[in-house]
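In the previous chapter we treated chains in isolation. Here, by contrast, the input contains two separate entities that must be folded as one system, with a combined length of 900 residues.
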Amino acid sequence: MNQLASESELHKLNQALDTGAFQQIRFTLNNTLQSVEVAQLLEKSPPKERKVLWKLIHRDNEGAVLQHLSDEIQADILSRMDNSRVLALADSLDTDDFADILQQLPDTVMHELLKVMDQQNRERVEQVLSFPEDTAGGLMNTDTVTIRPDITVETVLRYIRRHDEIPEMTDSLFVISRRKELYIGILPLTKLLVTDPDITVREIMVTEIEPIPATMTDHEVALLFEQHDLVSAPVVDDDGKLLGRITIDDVVDVIREDADHSLMSMAGLDDDEDTFAPVWKTSKRRAIWLGINLITAFIASAVIGIFQGTIDKVVALAVLMPIVASMGGIAGSQTLTLVIRAQALDQVEKANAAWLIRRELAVGILNGILWAIVVAGVAVAWFGDYTIGLIIAMAIIINLIVGTCSGTILPLILKARGVDPALAGGVLLTTVTDVVGFLAFLGLATYFYG
Amino acid sequence: MNQLASESELHKLNQALDTGAFQQIRFTLNNTLQSVEVAQLLEKSPPKERKVLWKLIHRDNEGAVLQHLSDEIQADILSRMDNSRVLALADSLDTDDFADILQQLPDTVMHELLKVMDQQNRERVEQVLSFPEDTAGGLMNTDTVTIRPDITVETVLRYIRRHDEIPEMTDSLFVISRRKELYIGILPLTKLLVTDPDITVREIMVTEIEPIPATMTDHEVALLFEQHDLVSAPVVDDDGKLLGRITIDDVVDVIREDADHSLMSMAGLDDDEDTFAPVWKTSKRRAIWLGINLITAFIASAVIGIFQGTIDKVVALAVLMPIVASMGGIAGSQTLTLVIRAQALDQVEKANAAWLIRRELAVGILNGILWAIVVAGVAVAWFGDYTIGLIIAMAIIINLIVGTCSGTILPLILKARGVDPALAGGVLLTTVTDVVGFLAFLGLATYFYG
């Protein structure tokens, strides 16, 4: 429902910026819109407008807005804020969210800030920071509501009513042991509300849900939440002591980033890429990716270079050769995408990889034969030469098989070696299909025409 | 924590299948594993094993497992089940989940099944089915717990305690008007638990959350849940009458599908593609995508064909021409991916599109100049010909500008015309960068050498 509202909102803001109606903008940003909507507006504003808008946001709202921005934009804004202002953000944010923001700062700045924080806050932030950002420990928050197993439902209800409020996203209370605060089980609020007041927590608590170790990767946490439809889950240390909890709102961000990761990496982009990054920043990043891909292109050219003599004799080869390379590349990248998605969902493992490779081999052969016939037909009709039809047919079959098989095998090898298949897979695959495509087509031609 | 467990689980199951230890498998599937884990195992099994495993699942567990499978696999399994068995699934599933499964059946079969259902069930399923699957109405469930505004917290607590259980994912009760059941507000359980028993619902209910209209798209629903960190939200009809609620577990699936959609469509794959689909099915689908891309390849060849005479004179052109086309394609597809992701997040609109296009123009010029110099240097060194360096430099600048600009403009045009940019964008972009690349390079060469 806010979609349409904020769409015209950007247009209205732009107009107000043009006419210099800053008072009006200030009011909209601080009084009319929710902080998440302000963040959305900032994300879809070009750099100059974004800076002006940020300055018009009231100090008290800065934390709330910042927390909804992507890492890259956070880092950019923080780099222009002075330390006292960054510290003030802690007041309005959850510990885990404030820790996330701190991590966008250079290490030296972060440690300076931690030094001047009051002790209680510092300890809580440091606990979250002691785990890498992409683990359960880095995702968790420490705002758990805990109870003991031997009290009755009535006592629990009385205990809760003493609170002014309980944290958002609290769908269950965590049951911990009296002595060492070890995690024992959870008591869902829905169960608490329907149970007879005399029953004890121990009798109704749920113990099937295994707590999440703080070292689990955020990717695994996300799959767990997805599979078990969790709203919140307890996080424990190696000894089973309750450290905090992870809530679905943070997991949803991980799921979105996880899913975006493959898409963005395959195009050599950051998961978190700022759509409206300035020209210079964008150009630098893209230049690197173009450079890497240029190496692939030069390798392909070098292969063609070997066969200059043959092309000189039969110029039709130059006309048809991109078809062979392109068909192999398309077939390969389809398979590559499928396997990368399957890897992201943890569907591929040793036990089924062999079947996948065999299937892709069969698909490569079938589609190779089909399109070899079509392309050969067109080539013969175009150049009136049966030999060129035969050559291109053989080359296409070879390259489609190579494409589908390496589309499967490459990501498996890369992942086993700890290289991100989404980032490196596409470049390597194109190198293979280009080289094999040109080599097969021009090599066969040299044999037949030589 | 189940990740590692189920990884070896697949291996163990495969071994058991090989040795024919069906009793053991049956026990594992029905007694050891949770239904979501069984679904995961089915998803990562090749077709033959999948069929055998499915037969070993107990009737009572079929619904629970089916509900966790992707649409394509659901449809495949349902097509081999008889009607009475499909009907039996209704007993173990939520209305919305059962309706989702019914939608995988051919329309005629679905209507036959609805006819023989008992009236109450039929009406509930038909209500969900009356909304398209990809709208709030299609996502919602009807298991709301509703209360009136003028009762006290104590009465609410007593009313709830009369239930044996309240539905999972119930984080708030919905407040509706006494007469027409119009939606008024929500009462979060966390608030209910900390409020003085004498206070009335009206005094503490939250009214800021606007209810979701049943016709809102699931994509918008997902953005709303993400932005506002919701666990559940009320769904209303045009008159404001409460129809049901949407819960975060169903939204998480939409977010995952939404994010996967761009990745999969850009490779011509279904969002929901079965990784382990059989050879024949896979080959047919891939053939179509290869055919579409072949048209692009032939168009590029036709362009090269125009310049056969020039290539015949200077064979080095054939060696270098793929570089020009490839650099334009890479630059273009980076931009295309960025814009498609931004569109999926609703970040691009009229008010900022012009800025994006100008930025990409600038990036194209800057990177064009950089890489033109590099490639020209290599070309001159390789072929000892300054003219070819000049030609390729100019062609690369032209093609990089065309690539980045059409990478931005194409998805904007496609979306405005109601065509999915993720599906059609890549093919069109490659056609543009291939044609422009070859045309610019070989055209300039014809001018300089002609």
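Chain A touches chain B through 131 residues (CB under 8 Å). Residues 1-6 of chain A have pLDDT under 50 and may be disordered. Compare these points with the single-chain example from earlier in the chapter.
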